[in-house]
Write a structure and sequence with these properties.
alpha/beta, Rossmann fold, eight-stranded mixed β-sheet, two-stranded parallel ribbon, 9 helices, 12 strands
Length: 272
């Protein structure tokens, strides 16, 4: 595998491309504005301006899609018709995949495809998502997996944290926050990059994988500590109310890749 195109070179895609470039791959990355070209060029990534709105727009699109692996890394837009719109985006993308004979796709999905069932959830389960974003992602996963001749790897990340993304700001100073006794499902940016790299290096193509830190501290413990770490007032959680959660099991990815998480405990991610 020599040429990798990352559709969505943002918070995760840019450092991922930077890392893969250092491993010797040729990298192409897409952003939605020319203003971001400089960041990609500094990282040695060939920049492209591409958008799916929902039809493909941009410049030099044929060159971008000439690759050995396409990494699709953009979340569904928050809008009332999120399911229909994201499906239309992916339909347009599939036309380009067919047109350029792309054989391998890595799709960055999310653990939001799982509903809160108050237990562990696994890749083999066919569960109906609850939220619009989860439903949209599940539909797109299926579109890609149903595409004949395409090897699609689905990577379902937990909540993305690390580096400049400070979860302590999310709930700081809020009162009566619900669901404090629910376990969290999080993954550090460094582990996202490490897992994607190993999937490529070990030539794992096809299949669905969960990817979350192994430990799942309670929401109230995590977000209190996260706020205190950056000097903000910690949130106060409701003492009563129904607790709804899921625990995302990542044993499959650890065993398949023999991967050891850099940050197996989200509480450890909070240490300076």
């Amino acid at each position: 595998m020599d040429v990798i195109s990352i559709l969505g070179a943002g918070w995760l895609g840019l450092p991922l491309g930077r890392f893969l470039k250092r491993q010797g791959y040729e990298l192409k990355g897409s952003v939605t504005s020319f203003e971001k070209f400089g960041l990609l060029q500094e990282a040695g990534i060939q920049p492209f301006r591409l958008m799916l709105s929902p039809e493909l727009e941009g410049e030099n699109t044929d060159s971008f899609f000439q690759c050995d692996l396409l990494i699709v890394n953009f979340p569904p837009k928050r809008r009332p018709d999120i399911e229909e719109y994201h499906s239309a985006q992916m339909t347009a993308l599939l036309e380009e995949i067919r047109k350029h004979g792309i054989k391998k796709v890595l799709f960055v999905s999310s653990s939001s495809v799982y509903p809160d069932v108050n237990r562990e959830v696994f890749e083999y389960e066919d569960l109906e998502p609850e939220k619009g974003s989860g439903k949209a992602l599940r539909m797109v996963e299926q579109l890609l997996m149903d595409e004949a001749g395409l090897q699609t790897t689905i990577l379902r990340f937990g909540g993305l944290v690390g580096h400049d993304r400070q979860p302590g700001r999310f709930l700081a100073a809020k009162k009566d926050v619900p669901n404090g006794d629910a376990p969290v499902n999080l993954i550090h940016q460094d582990d996202c990059i490490g897992i994607i790299h190993q999937l490529i290096k070990q030539q794992v193509a096809g299949g669905i994988f969960n990817a979350c830190a192994e430990k799942h501290p309670l929401r109230k413990d995590y977000y209190r500590q996260a706020a205190l770490q950056i000097g903000l007032e910690p949130p106060e959680f409701a003492q009563f109310g129904e607790v709804r959660f899921k625990i995302v099991n990542s044993e499959k990815i650890r065993k398949t890749l023999n991967y050891t998480f850099k940050y197996p405990d989200p509480m450890g991610m909070l240490k300076p």
